[in-house]
Structure formats: structure tokens, C-alpha cells
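Q: What would this chain look like folded?
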Amino acid sequence: MLDYHPFSEAVYDDPYPFYRRLRDEAPAFYLEEFDCWFLSRFEDIWQRLQDQTPLTSRFGTTTTHLLTKQTPTAPNLSSYDGAEHARIRGFFSPFFLPGAMRRLEPLVRELARETVARATSQGSCDAVADLGGRVSVRVASTILGLPLEDADPILDWVNTYFEREPGQRGSTKRGIESSKDFAIYLYGIAKRARERGAPPGSVLEKLLATELEGERLDDRRIAAHLHMMAIGGTETFPKVFSALLYRLWQHPAQRAAVAADPSQAPHAFQEALRYDMPTQMLGRTVAQDFELHGKRLRAGAGLCFLWASANRDEREFPDPDRFDVARRAPRILSFGTGAHMCLGANAARLEGRVLLEELLARMPEYEVDEAASVRLRSEFFRGFAKLPISWQARR
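A: My prediction, written as C-alpha cells:
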């Protein structure tokens, strides 16, 4: 009998054996406790995301919406469906298109160099907070129009929101309060920007100046959009980047190859996205009954996509449990696919490529203090909360 449970300590320890059994024995798996289905195969998830007609995002997409029911939905990009979602996505997408990323690259390069130089001068750092976190929160703040001097508290708000406590399911009380505090901060940012102006070319400037959904948004709605986009642009990248550094340290020949040929950096980042996908699941609510693998998924039930399982599906990837920067997987699910594909995918790939290039140019033989690392234990995220690295600087 399958004993998969998203809040199981054994799953926190190592979910991949559970995911393999789900893929092989119950690719559409139901847990009555949550009235929720879990999909584990790559192709099933890919196809369902390409056609989301029988699904809705209106009741939330995260585990705190679909499983623990702790988080109320807010009117932002992730909570809309169909044509309504397409209109709102079209409002924000120009900030994340390839052309916008090309214009942003000099700033990301400068930030990456400054971050690596800052770390190098100390001889050691935490790859999660001091490298990935420092870069991602500043890039997100620049795009959105948030003050860079507030980057560190923003990162702390986001990290606290996703913290977990042993024996407690879902968000902690401190995490929920942190999310509220961040929302109040963003409300104040919107209010002040309405009086004093927003940074030119920023998302905030456009939100203040342009109608969305046929109306001018009030400060509360602006804060809701900024809240979702700031979290999305800050929380995942540090986990992916630290996982990438850990895997390259485990595979020194692959690390040396990427250091010798920086054109391999985007492929290395792509493989880390596949191999160590931090977000274990996101989902929808079934809006119309449909059948899959002989099961009837009824309206009102939750449906969670097990991203990390899909990215290790042997039906899609040869030898999926092998980390290989030379792999050229034609598709992965780390950013989703279809209409709701992650809006910030191009930004994350830019940050990953540039930061890895700069880091390996300065510290190609860094060491990981694995004994001092701290791993996340959560139904939602997997990866490092802390990954200490050290090096001798290349002069």
C-alpha cells in the first residue's frame, strides 16, 4: 500500500522513492484527508497545464491554500483563469520578455560581480543568503520599483513566510504575520509612490499609471500584485542556485568543465532546475469533472502537481537520477508550462547564468561545509536553508 503523505517526515527526508512509487503505481493519487489528488508523471502534468479548462486557480495554488487552508486568496496574477488571466499577464509580461532581460543584464552583471567580490573578501559565505538571496531580491526590487535599501528586510519577510516548525503543518504563526507585515509595507510603498512618483520604467510606475482590468487600481490591489511578484522573484532562486553549487562541488569534473567554458553555465543552471526543483508542488482546484488513469476527479477537489517528481520521471528523462550539466533536456517543468508558466523564468535564467559565471571566475574550487549546512523540511520546499562555502580567491 502506498504511504505517500506530503507532511510525512520520511518524505521530508527523501521524497524521491515515494515519487517513483507514485509514478509507477498510482499516477493519479488521492488523499481523502485533504480531498486532493496528486499527479506525479511528467506528461500528465504537462498536458494538464497545456489545457487547464477543467481547473481553476481562484481558490489558490499553494499547499497553504489547497492542503492546510491557512492562506486566503488575493486578487493577483496567480489567482485568475482563462481570458482574465491572459489580460493581466499581458500587463506584466513586457517586464520579463527576452528584450527586457537583455537591457537588464548589465545591472545583473554588476550586482553579481559586487556580490561575489563582497563574498570573496570574507573567504566564506552562505550560498543561500549571501549569493542567491542577495542577487534575487535586488533584481526583483529593481524590476518592481521597490527601494534597494529595503532589500534585506524584504528577503527576511519572504524567508520567514516560508519557514516551517517541526510537528506543525503548513505556515507558522510567525510566517503568516511576516506575510501580513510585508503586505502592509507594500501598501505603504504604493501610497507613497502615488504621492511622490515611482521609479521610471518599473512595475510600480505602470500599476499607478495604467488601468488594469478596466480600472485604476487602489493601493491595496497594487500591494497584492507586488506581494505575489516579489515573493515569486525572491524565494526560489536562492534554493536553486545553492543546490547548483552543491551538485557542482559533488561533481568536480563537471564544475571544472563549466569554469573552463562559461557557455556551459546556462545548461548547468537548467540541470539544477530539473534535478533539484525546490518547489515540490503547486496546484489548482478541479472545476469540472474529468477522468485520468481510470480515476474520476470531481469538481471541488484539489489537484497538486508534483513538480519534483515529474522532473525525475524516467518516462521523460534518460537516467533521471543522474546530475549531468551536459544533459540537454528539451523540456522541464521547473517553471511550469502553458498559460500560467512562471512569468519570471527569463529573469531567473539570467541571474543563474551570470552569477555562476562570476562565481566560477573568482572561486572555481570552492569548498562546501556540508556538515554545517541546514536543509529545509517542508511539504512545499526542498533544498538548503543554509549552505556554507569557502575558497581561496583566484588573483
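The two ends are 58 Å apart (CA to CA).
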